[in-house]
Amino acid sequence: MTTPTALDSFLDKWRSRWPEWAVAEVFIPEDRRAATLAWFALLQEFDDILNIAGDPLPADAKLGWWGTELRDWSTHRSRHPLGRLLEPVPAPWSALADALPTLVAARERPADGAAALASLAGYGGAVAAVEASVLGGTPPQAQAIAAQVLATRLAEAGLQAVPQARQPGDTDVTAARERAQRDWAAELLAAWPAKAGGSPARRMWGAFARHRLGQFAQGHVPQPGRQPLGLLWRTWRAARG
Q1: pLDDT digits 0-9 by tens, 41-64
Q2: CB atoms near residue 129 (< 10 Å)
Q3: What is the Cα Rg of the chain in Å?
Q4: Rounded distance, CA 1 to CA 24, Å?
Q5: 8 Å CB contact between 215 and 222
Q6: Contact 232, 224 (CB under 8 A)
Q7: Which of 103, 112, 183, 203 is the least crowded, having the fewest Cβ atoms under 10 Å away?
Q8: C-alpha distances in Å from residue 28, one per residue of 161, 183, 184
Q9: How far is CA 159 from CA 53, 176, 191, in A?
Q10: In angstroms, rounded to a whole number, what is the distance separating the alpha carbons of residues 68 and 36?
């Protein structure tokens, strides 16, 4: 995993999930685009580990590997392709490594919305601190990062991501399951700070994620890029803060 092709595969995977970035990228200085993409692609790797389906042991082992890798970045050593772009940045990589094990516990269905956000508070704070070093500007709010991670989890894991307090009862029919997921999406939107701070890149990515979550809460299937003028408007507003 040390060739340019390997790096491109990680960046392209993130781009494929967030096609809205084709519009947003023009608002990022050209010399900052590669590091921005690498950072977001790294966070996607952690999202994938959180949202693993089936046997979690391989994902847990991968998480342990990432902990070692991030600590090595603090001493300017890297083995992963994303590290070629991120490791030179002085950042609290070890603190992020220390926060990774909370992702394992966060797979468990939380009691309620507050518990779900609290389970990712430490991780969100560690991500925010590193992100301020990588992307510049003030750190984004940890709760906004936690909400975005939970929104991604809802999109990937469905009912498994919904807190116990919102689980449908014995009438576990399709309509009840869908309503529980929409209600959780609406609760996440309410908990997501409207002005979450952070760099223009984070604000734009967050705006895309919020829009998708809002569509889902209203019972619609998110369709990124379906309305290009609306996308451009959201991107411009987020970039300007």
Answers
A1: 999 999 999 999 889 999 999 999
A2: 17
A3: 18
A4: 28
A5: yes
A6: no
A7: 112
A8: 33, 34, 33
A9: 13, 10, 19
A10: 22
